[in-house]
Each structure stands twice: as structure tokens, then as C-alpha cells.
Amino acid sequence: MTNFEFMKEEYLSLRREIEASISELATLERQCVLATAGIYNKHAKGWEHFHYQATRNKFRTKVRVAAWLTLIALTIFIAFHGSTIVAEPKCHSENNLCR
Asked: Are the beta carbons of 69 and 77 closer than 8 angstroms?
């Protein structure tokens, strides 16, 4: 086995290990978002009724609700589809080790 073949095999094994770690991290992030949503849904009760009565029929409330819903939807979308959004890295090496 030449030095180049050894380096290539080492690179490929490290790449597989990093991809597995990234996949595990994405799963952990998704589970954290779902756990946070579940805890919030179960334990955050009461304040929304006071807030609604204090700011009834105001445009500012509608804008805030729309902004929060957009942020929550984006967070959930990225949690489930974030790995497909990220593009593969471009290969700039002379030996074409990227794939």
C-alpha cells in the first residue's frame, strides 16, 4: 500500500465518521425541538389569555403572532430538512479525494 492509498483510506474513514456524527447531531437537534415543544405545550398555560385580553384587536399582536409562527415553522423545517439543504463541499484538491 502506497502512502497515497493510505492517506486516501484514512481520509475516507474519517469522512464516514464525521458524516455519522453530523447525522447523530441532526437527530439530537430534532429531538430537542420536539421535546421543547412538548414541554411548552404541557406547562406554559395561563399567560396567553391575559396577553390576548390586554392587546385585543391590535395590529401589533397580529404581526407578532405572524413573526413567531414563521420562526417556529422555519425552526421545525430546518430541524427535519436541514441536512438536505446543505450542499456537498466542492473538491479543490489535485488528487480528487472528495469522492
From this structure: no
Cα 65 from Cα 80, distance rounded (Å): 23
73, three cell numbers = 415553522
Mind listing the pLDDT tens digit of every residue in the chain (99 residues)? 788 899 999 999 999 999 999 999 989 999 998 888 888 877 766 655 555 555 566 666 777 788 889 989 988 888 887 777 665 556 655 555 555
Distance from C-alpha of 58 to C-alpha of 95, rounded to nearest angstrom = 62
Long-range own/partner contacts, residues 32-38 (CB < 8 A, 24 or more apart): 33/75, 33/76, 33/79
Q: Residues near 75 by Cβ (< 8 Å), separated by ≥ 6?
A: 33
pTM: 0.43
- Domain boundaries defined on the chain: 3-85
DSSP 3-state assignment of 87?
coil
Hunting for cell 502512502 — which residue is that? 3
